Amino acid sequence: MAKLDLIATCPMGLEAIVAREVKELGYEDVTVENGRVTFTGDELAICRTNLWLRTADRILVKMGQFEARTFDDLFEGTKALDWPAWIPEYGEFPVEGRSHKSQLSSVPACQGIVKKAVVEKMKERYRTEWFEEDGPRYVIEVALLNDIATLTIDTTGPSLHKRGYRKLVTEAPLKETMAAALVNLSRWKPDRPLYDPFCGSGTILIEAAMLGWNIAPGLRRSFPSEYWDIIGQSRWEQAREEAYDSLNDDIPLEIAGSDIDPKAIEVAEAAAKAAGLSKELKFYVEPVAKAKPRSDFGCLITNPPYGERLGEQKEVERVLRQLGQLTGSLHTWSSFVLSPSKQLEHYFPRPADKRRKLFNGRIECQLYQYFGPLPPRRRNTEPVE
């Protein structure tokens, strides 16, 4: 199997989490950059990372990188890369692009140049003047940053946050990748209770259950690279079999959530059912003021309303105050609250133990982290032989 340069793209602020996930899959040659994590792997790594990465957006194959200050530079640099090694004669290969702080600022023009260069390279290999492009899809991206062009092929298709279980959405849904990141950052384990008093469509709770049972998040969806000759069906079958073998669904889970909106709870219940987790998750229609998480030493993980529209701010302040009262009453719990509010700690019994800047879409937020006591260690009651 060949050694490939691969890129896992992700929202700003999640790079370290994605890097840890990549390493946990056994890939050590990892470099963290803004919005991306680069690593070395083989064809099977493409399958595994698409199936398993919970907080990344896409897995890209890095075809090449070079300086491109002129269209000639971009054409020649692109044509020098071995596109036919990946794209068959019948492959579909659209070109997408973006440019930042580069002399080649016209993205459509750059896309056209790259397309032309790839076609010329393909003509040399396949000895034809015309490509039908009616086969598997290979989306090429040209990304220009400070006059450096990076050429990639997207193996993922629709972003990895599209797990397949959420058919309906609430008004302001939290992406599955961000929900998984919040659970990851809380260091929650499945032997602890978990509660979300603003659960909306239930994404945090579903992502926690999937993590608790070691369910590969990409197991219910498909990827364009499943149909690529260079990877082959056998590798995808191997990766999926590994994922099914890793599933551990006999662990009891104590995961629940509530929301004041009955329609949101309906959406959450439908999503939990689609994810195969309806029996494991409990949902309640109730305001945060009446939320009553059960048990001790749990994790409260939530994304309360932001109140972006005029006139909503007072309601948000009231709700945050009630959330602060709830967390203050949970003496053995740890609480993790994602919010853009600069005043959130004012409504809580004490300042956060730790803050972390994250971006929920384009909204800059803080993850306010309140650490409770760790659960007592369970004694080993098994007899000593």
Automatic annotation (TrEMBL):
Cross-referenced SUPFAM superfamilies: S-adenosyl-L-methionine-dependent methyltransferases
Key word Cell division present: no
Keywords per UniProt: Methyltransferase, RNA-binding, Transferase
Annotated ranges, domain THUMP: 45-155
Pfam families, sorted: RlmL_1st, THUMP, UPF0020
Domain of life: Bacteria
A GO MF label: RNA binding
Protein name, UniProt field: Class I SAM-dependent RNA methyltransferase
Species whose genome carries this gene: Paenibacillus chitinolyticus
